[in-house]
Design brief:
Layout: H1 3-10, E1 19-24, H2 31-38, H3 41-44, E2 48-53, H4 57-66, E3 71-75, H5 76-84, E4 93-98, E5 104-109, H6 110-114, H7 120-130, E6 134-138, H8 144-155, E7 164-168, H9 174-179, E8 185-189, H10 192-198, E9 202-207, H11 208-211, E10 218-223, H12 224-229, H13 231-249, H14 254-261, H15 271-278, E11 281-283, E12 289-291, H16 309-321, H17 331-338, H18 341-350, E13 363-364, E14 370-371, H19 376-381
Parallel strand pairs: 1-2, 1-3, 6-7, 6-8
Antiparallel strand pairs: 3-10, 4-10, 5-8, 5-9, 11-12, 13-14
Helix pairs in contact: 2-13, 2-14, 5-16, 13-18, 14-15, 16-17
Length: about 375
C-alpha cells in the first residue's frame, strides 16, 4: 500500500483547512476551477472551494501574496515573475498544476484590417511603410499574454520593445479600449478575442496555439508558504481540479460547461461567446472559418496538468530575453523550487491520472526554434530580436 493511501487511512492525510479561497479571472480557462466547485468535485475530496472573481491579474497577485486568497487561477508567468521579484519584492511561490493549454489569441483592430495588416508579415510591411507606432495591450508584464505577443511580433521582425508601445490592461477592458482607439490590438484569453469579432471591432490575427502548439497557459498557483503549511489541503485541491479537468476535457460536456461558466457569477456573458472556440470552432472575423484540432485543452489524460519543469523554465528564458531578468538564473533550480511535482504526483496517483515519464518536454515554436530545456541560457540569448 502506498504511503499516501496509508496516511489517508490513518487520518493524517485529512485536509488541514477545508475551505480554500481560490481566485479566478473571468476567462474561459477558469472552467476547471468553476466545475470543481459547481459539480462538487471538491466535496468528494473533503474540501470546499470558495471562488472569488477578480478584476485584474495585479489584483490576483496582490491577494495571493497578502493571504486573502489561498490559491488562484493564474498566468504561468505571473507566478514565476513574483518568485523572481520582477516588479516588486520577491515572494516564494508554487505551481500546483497546469490548468490548460492553448486557447488564447492576438486581436488587431478593424482599422488595421482595412489597411491590409491581416497577418504578421503584412503588419510589419505596414509599419515599415507608414512608420506608424502601434499601441498594443497585454494583461500582465510577466504573463503569458505578454510573452505570446512579444514572441509573435519578434518572429515577424517587429521589436516589441522599440517598434510598438506596450500597455497593460485587464482582459475585460480590451475590446472597449480598442473601440475607443486607445490601443490597436491586444493579446488576451477568451472570450475577449471572440467578443471583438462579435462587435465588429477587430479580428483574430493569430491564436496562441499557432505560436506554440500545446503551450502551457494558466496554472493553479499559491504561495510556497501555503503549499508547505497545508500540503494535504493543497493535494486535495489538486485532486478535485484534476477530476474537474477530466470532465471539462470531454467534448460532450463542453456545452454544459460553457453554459455554467457563462453565468453571472463567473464570466457573465452570452454562451455563444464561449462555446464555439471551446469546441474548436474558429472564425477570424475576416471570413475564414476552421476546425482547430489544437483548441483549448484542460486534461488530455493528465498531459496538460503535469507541471513540467521545462514549461516554467521557458518563461524564465523569455524574461531574460526581454531584459526582465538582468542575469541568467539557475533555470532548472528555480523551476524545481516552484513546480510542486511530488505533490502533484501524489494527487494524480489518487485519482488515477497518468503521469509522464519525464519532467521535461520538447516543443517547436512558430519560428522553428526547438525548446527542450537543455540549454536555457543559450536559448534565451539566441534570438535575433531581444533586449
Amino acid at each position: 500500500m502506498n504511503t499516501v493511501l496509508t496516511n489517508r487511512i490513518a487520518g493524517s492525510d485529512a485536509p488541514e483547512i477545508r475551505e480554500i479561497r481560490v481566485g479566478f479571472m473571468p476567462l474561459t480557462d477558469c472552467a476547471s476551477l468553476v466545475i470543481a466547485s459547481a459539480l462538487k468535485f471538491d466535496e468528494k475530496h473533503g474540501i470546499k472551494i470558495v471562488l472569488s472573481k477578480e478584476v485584474s491579474w495585479a489584483g490576483v497577485r496582490d491577494r495571493l501574496i497578502g493571504g486573502e486568497l489561498h490559491a488562484a487561477h493564474a498566468l504561468y508567468g505571473l507566478i514565476y515573475g513574483v518568485h523572481m521579484g520582477i516588479g516588486g519584492a520577491p515572494r516564494a511561490m508554487s505551481v500546483l498544476m497546469t490548468l490548460n493549454r492553448n486557447g488564447q489569441g492576438i486581436t488587431l483592430s478593424g482599422e488595421l484590417g482595412k489597411r491590409g495588416a491581416t497577418s504578421g508579415a503584412a503588419l510589419k510591411s505596414l509599419m515599415d511603410r507608414d512608420r506608424r507606432d502601434l499601441v498594443l495591450a497585454q494583461t500582465f508584464p510577466t504573463g503569458t499574454h505578454a510573452m505570446w505577443l512579444y514572441y509573435w511580433l519578434a518572429s515577424h521582425g517587429i521589436d516589441p520593445l522599440n517598434d510598438a508601445g506596450i500597455v497593460t490592461l485587464p482582459p475585460p477592458q480590451m475590446v472597449r479600449s480598442m473601440r475607443m482607439a486607445k490601443v490597436d490590438g491586444y493579446s488576451a484569453g477568451e472570450p475577449w478575442n471572440s467578443l471583438a469579432i462579435r462587435e465588429h471591432a477587430g479580428f483574430t490575427v493569430a491564436t496562441s496555439q499557432e505560436i506554440w502548439p500545446d503551450h502551457p497557459e494558466k496554472v493553479l498557483g499559491c504561495t510556497a508558504e501555503f503549499a508547505k503549511k497545508y500540503p494535504n489541503s493543497s493535494r486535495a485541491l489538486i485532486m478535485a481540479v484534476l477530476e474537474a479537468s477530466r470532465y471539462v476535457d470531454e467534448m460532450e460536456n463542453r456545452d454544459k460547461v460553457s453554459e455554467i461558466i457563462a453565468g453571472e457569477a463567473y464570466i457573465d456573458c452570452q454562451v455563444g461567446m464561449i462555446e464555439p472556440r471551446m469546441k474548436g470552432d474558429y472564425e477570424n472575423g475576416l471570413g475564414r472559418k476552421w476546425k482547430d484540432p489544437d483548441c483549448i485543452k484542460f486534461c488530455d489524460q493528465g498531459e496538460v496538468n503535469f507541471p513540467y519543469l521545462s514549461d516554467g523554465m521557458w518563461f524564465l528564458t523569455q524574461f531574460r530575453r526581454w531584459g526582465l531578468l538582468k542575469h541568467d538564473p539557475d533555470y532548472l533550480a528555480v523551476a524545481r523550487e516552484i513546480n510542486q511535482i511530488e505533490l502533484y504526483r501524489q494527487a494524480a496517483d489518487q485519482v488515477k491520472m497518468p503521469l509522464p515519464g519525464d519532467a521535461m518536454r520538447t516543443s517547436k515554436l512558430m519560428d522553428g526554434k526547438v525548446w527542450d530545456g537543455r540549454d536555457p541560457a543559450g536559448y534565451a540569448s539566441g534570438f535575433a530580436i531581444k533586449a
